[in-house]
Amino acid sequence: MMKEQQLGPHHLDTAETLNNLAVLSFHQGWYSESESLYRRALTIKEQQLGMEHSKTADTLNNLAVLYRNQGRYSEAEPLYLRTLTIWEQQLGPQHPDTVFALGNLGRLYCLQARYEKAEPYLQQALLLSEVHFGPEHPYTAQSLSNLARLCVDQRRYEQAESLFQRALIIREQHLGKRHPYTALTLNSLAMLSSAQGKDIEAIVFFERALAIQEKQLGPEHPDVANSLNDLAGVYMKQASYEQAEPLFQRALAIREHKLGTEHPDTIITRENYANLLRKMKWEEEC
């Protein structure tokens, strides 16, 4: 790496380059490489800036996001908590980074089904987003989406739909209709529609999200696998097994390659695919 050769392995500019490379690897779905780069960057920042510096927290947060995406929730939580504490103390309780930390921690607790712990963080993040960024800002859209996912988990579907629709309008207007974040909101609306039994509507949302993700992120990205798996699930629910099978196969191949065979998402897809094969065999025997 040029920076490392010019400045040495412990220089702060080297750390920033490592962090940026880690972000790039993360967005390409190369999680193992991303973790190694984040850890190297974090070591340099802790040594050169100190354990409580706001830039140290930048890399702590990035590493926590990576762990969350890998299903390593117990490892992500202390990093998120450290990040929130540092940013509150160094940047202030109303700084944009602090708002992000609140949302990230709340979302993690949702993934762990710790809903009572999650909601105060998510509500506070949304309130601060609306006050400091404005009700139509993309950062507010993220806070809306995080709270909406909690509502879905708690089967508060009407509230969830209202929040997701607000987030979608903001992202389409400010990021564009083909942005990956717009696709994430479409995917969330698809999941909500499916949970309400609106399968046709869900398929339309999933297909829109999938088209964006494949074009913008590439056909092997973990987000593509998410949409493939979820779309296949809707087809399986409709007993459209021939349409579901290739989608589960693609999703499983991506997740095994990008996330590993023991990742929670990989296990879910493997179980979904096995369930599909059992249904197809039963149908043949009948």
Describe this structure in words.
By secondary structure, the protein is mostly helical. Among the domains are: 102-110 and 117-153 and 160-171, no CATH class; 198-286, Serine Threonine Protein Phosphatase 5, Tetratricopeptide repeat (Alpha Horseshoe), CATH 1.25.40. The chain has 14 helices and no strands. The chain has helices spanning 2-7, 12-27, 31-48, 54-69, 73-90, 96-111, 115-132, 138-153, 157-174, 180-195, 199-217, 222-237, 241-258, 264-285. 44% of the residues are buried.
Short descriptors:
14 helices; 0% strand; mainly alpha; Serine Threonine Protein Phosphatase 5, Tetratricopeptide repeat; 286 residues
Task: Describe the global form.
Answer: globular
Global structural class: mainly alpha
CA-CA gap between termini: 62 Å
Which series of helices and strands comes N to C?
A: HHHHHHHHHHHHHH
Helix content: over 70%
Would you identify the CATH architecture of the domain at 198-286? Alpha Horseshoe
CATH fold descriptor of the domain at 198-286: Serine Threonine Protein Phosphatase 5, Tetratricopeptide repeat
